[in-house]
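Worked example 3. Consider a protein that binds 5-O-phosphono-beta-D-ribofuranosylamine.
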Amino acid sequence: MKKRIGVLLSGRGSNFEALAESVEAGRIPDAEIALVVSNREGAEGIEKARRQGIDARVIPSKGLEREAYDKLVVAALQEKKVDLVCLAGYMRLLSPHFVAAFPQRILNIHPSLLPAFPGLESQRQALEHGAKFSGCTVHFVDENLDAGPIVLQACVAIEDADTPETLAERILREEHRIYSEAVRIVLEGRYRIEGRRVLLHAPKGSERK
Ligand code: GRF
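Given these inputs, the predicted complex is written out as structure tokens:
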């Protein structure tokens, strides 16, 4: 049976597109994107998903308490029998109810080398801090902002001429690459968690003889 991925987003959806392409190309094997949800009307990612024939729903969060809203989203994900939830530019903190519904089954992508520069505008934060390197992080999600055990990271050098936009563009390329890789690792169960550390197992067939 194919593993079923649910993607939550609030905007452009380029990480969703990268995941969808990886599923299509077999870089994330035996998987399908079963549902895309946006909390915002007009999120480009929803249109992109619909054009690919993927069930994509807007569930507006405006005016709802965090937990009441999360219950709606969790119900939709459960109805679609989602195995793994991928946050991809989803601009909301998850409630304990949401996290408990998918234990160690929620991933997020963040455009910095966590724990540096959590929150909004991470690329600007990195530049203003004078960091020489930044990058991106795929991590398991808990109730805290940009916390949770780290699955993969990629490093990007910061150049003197960088603006938040040019840096974001180079980081985004790495995001698209490592998010798919991390989803594959998690769906294949090729890891174990010890404390905060996610220890990766070698892919099948690659062990030394
Ligand atoms: C990405 O930079 C991601 O790391 C952050 O939000 C942005 C979403 O971009 N969490 P997109 O919607 O996937 O294009």
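Take a moment to read the result before moving on. The first strand starts at residue 3 and ends at 9. The pocket of 5-O-phosphono-beta-D-ribofuranosylamine is lined by residues 9, 11-15, 45, 88-89, 109-111, 172, 175 (CB under 6 Å).
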